[in-house]
Amino acid sequence: MSRAQRIHVVAAVIRNHQQQILLARRPEHAHQGGLWEFPGGKLEQGESPYAGLCRELHEELGIQVSQARPLLDISHDYPDKQIRLDVWLVEAFSGEPHGAEGQPVRWVNQQELAQYPLPAANVPIVNAARLPECYLITPDLHSIVDLVPAIERAIDSGQRLIQIRQTQWSEQTYRQASEQLVARFGDQVTFMLKGPQPLSLPGCGWHLTARQLTHMAANPESGTALLARCEGPIAASCHNAEELGMAEQLGLDFATLSPLLPTASHAQATPIGWTAAAELLKGVNMPVYLLGGLKPADCSLAFQHGAQGIAAIRGLWPSAN
Ligand SMILES: Nc1nc2c([nH]c(=O)n2[C@H]2C[C@H](O)[C@@H](COP(=O)(O)OP(=O)(O)OP(=O)(O)O)O2)c(=O)[nH]1
Ligand SMILES: [Mg+2]
Q1: Which atom in ligand 1 lies closest to the alpha carbon of residue 56?
Q2: What 3-state DSSP class applies to 261?
Q3: CATH number of this structure's domain 134-312
Q4: Which of 46-55, 142-151, 174-183, 209-218 has the lowest mean pLDDT?
């Protein structure tokens, strides 16, 4: 079914200064009744998504939205309804949100979101709400001695999701370095680790290569068992619709899509480009970072093209001075 034929619902991720997210409880008699939701509702005929979002949040919460941007746009088939959930991140609003239609509302810590009973469609929205705008991938470095101070600077500059990608290191060196990094910085940042299987380090995620992803998609039973061993988020490197489809099918938390633009490190690869990337992302129900030749200033373009944000090595790596 095409997106145009679905019931178009706009919904909001709203954060307060403590980084808590606002949930509301759906009335018992409603579709998906009694479950918690991100406030919002159905677009009216001829209404733009932004206008619909502002109207719904005024009706349901009594607030005036003054700034919002796209976060994630997904499709979901319930047995009785096919919906498109067009989720926005509210960046500025006035008024104190309250249950203007008598519904309970609650500010919830990001880590506790998953404990609330939410509609099935909301799993990727919770991931998008928790993931940052930028995904830093480390460049190849000589040793852990070089890595620690750079990671410290990256965290100081606001990075919260970091892939440790050291293609030259032995498995043993990689594991020791990861242990050190987690012990030192694990409470401030989520590390995404590479390798043949997830390293059981507290809170760490696992980032699969496209090759591992393809293998796992072909052997879903052993794949699912491996995935279950990982405590943190699971992601994969994707380059086309097929790989994005496999990542979604396996229920991964997010993906990267590359190469968006030409880069020195992958000079032979054909870049996807912004327009084709936006087309690819329309079919994906999962947060995706665009990767390849991007820097933080490209984040808003990435949001407008349906991405979670940008991933980068050089574009996000802090300079030594
Ligand atoms: N607002 C919202 N709706 C969600 C979420 N997850 C999810 O599956 N839905 C579904 C439930 C409904 O089928 C649909 C939203 O419709 P709604 O009942 O809130 O619509 P509305 O606010 O315009 O209410 P109404 O006028 O139809 O009573 O989307 C979510 O997080 N937020
Ligand atoms: Mg509603």
Answers
A1: 22
A2: coil
A3: 3.20.20.70
A4: 142-151
The closest ligand to the CA of 52 turns out to be 1
* Cβ–ligand 1 contact at 9 (below 6 Å): yes
User: In this structure, which topology does domain 3-121 adopt according to CATH?
Assistant: Nucleoside Triphosphate Pyrophosphohydrolase (3.90.79)
Ligand closest to the CA atom of residue 99 = 2
What's the pLDDT band for 195 if we cut at 50, 70, 90?
very high
b (16+ CB within 10 A) / e for 12-34 = bbbeeeeebbbbbbbeeeeebee
Q: Binding site: which residues?
A: 26, 31, 37-40, 60, 122
**pTM exceeding the 0.90 threshold for the entire prediction:** yes
How many residues in the chain?
A: 321
Q: Where are the domains of the chain?
A: 3-121, 134-312
Does residue 120 have its Cβ closer than 6 Å to ligand 1? no
Q: Which two tokens stand for residue 45?
A: 């005929």
Q: Is 86 helix (H, G, I), strand (E, B) or coil?
A: strand
Pairing state between β 309-312 and 288-291: parallel
pLDDT at 320 over 70: no
- Taking the CA of residue 301 as centre, how many other CA atoms within 13 Å lie in the half-sphere pointing to its CB? 13
Structure tokens belonging to residue 23: 């949930």
Query: Ligand 1: does its nearest atom lie under 6 Å from the Cβ of 122?
Result: yes
- What span, in angstroms and rounded, lies between the C-alpha atoms of 233 and 192? 8
Q: Answer yes or no: is the C-beta of 42 below 6 A from any ligand 1 atom.
A: yes
Q: Determine whether the shortest distance from the Cβ of 138 to ligand 1 is under 6 A.
A: no
Q: What are the beta bridge partners of residue 192?
A: 163, 205
Fill in the amino acid letter for 225. A
CA 69 to chain centre: 14
Chain segment 224-282, per-residue pLDDT in tens: 888 888 989 999 999 999 999 999 999 999 999 999 998 877 778 899 999 999 999 99
CA-based torsion, 224, 228, 230, 234: positive or negative:
positive
Interface predicted TM-score (ipTM): 0.96
Measured in Å, residue 237 CA sits from the centre of ligand 1 at 32
On whether the CB atoms of residues 160 and 190 are closer than 8 A, the answer is yes
